[in-house]
Amino acid sequence: MKKFPIVIFFFIAACSTSKQIIQTPLIPQNIPVTGKIFASLYQQRAAEYRALCLQAFNIARLRVDESLQTTGKRKAIITDIDETVLDNSPYEVHQTLQGKDYEPTSWYQWTAMSKADTVPGAPAFLKYAASRGITIFYITNRDEKEREGTLLNLQKFNLPNADNTHLILRQGISSKESRRQQVAAAHDIILLLGDNLADFSSLFDKKSMAEREQNTDSLASAFGKKFIVIPNPVYGDWESTLYKYSNTLTSSQKDSVIKSSLKGY
Predict the structure, then answer these.
(1) 6: how many CB neighbours lie within 10 A of its CB?
(2) CA dihedral 127, 81, 18, 65 (to 10 degrees)
(3) Looking at residue 78, which CATH number applies to its domain?
(4) Do the domain assignments include residue 46?
(5) What's this model's pTM, rounded to 2 decimal places?
(6) SS3 (DSSP) at 162
(7) Over the stretch 137-160, which tens digit does the pLDDT of each residue have?
(8) Coil, strand, or helix at residue 196?
(9) How many domains, the chain?
(10) Is 247 within a domain?
């Protein structure tokens, strides 16, 4: 059945970016308000989400200032892109309103549009770090076919080092460890920014929930010091680990897994 959603227009602002007009379809009556929609709503509308992002980048700025007191190799920051620099919540909303989850084809269509806004505080922080002589590397698990759209999206906000040299895409495997080591060979990595723990260390690559928790505790002192986590309530390995990283579960099977993972009384 075709849906004819009503659209409304409103203005949203991202830190240090110009205001953009965003078209937001109202949820059709036959589409339930799911967890993905509610999480996307939090990301788009909660001042608390914005505050958490600003808090993270404020701490990152302090770490940049501290790093300037030391000398050695050229200093660099490694950052993830999705939900760390660019906000893809409109894609999640678009998919959910169609009763769909993530799909490679629709995702490639979205990134080719170069329409993602920025995560609050990200542009201002990256520009500040660059102004202090620190090089920015964007290590992402976007595919090579997304290079052009990704660069255009980053360049639209005049983000530093938004070029082919500093954009390091996935080459076969999702683990970012070898790419981090590639940067570390010639640079002193003062900070890593990400929304997913695998953005920081191979200790979190495809690990179980228990291993993720244990490794998080073992690296407790690094969070806020070298690892800066940006909140992402919508998706990530925190969700994938519930499904044991399976890509074959149906929506109803995922629903059962989620319900069995919750605590109540």
Answers:
(1) 8
(2) -20
(3) 3.40.50.1000
(4) no
(5) 0.88
(6) coil
(7) 999 999 999 999 999 999 999 999
(8) coil
(9) 1
(10) no
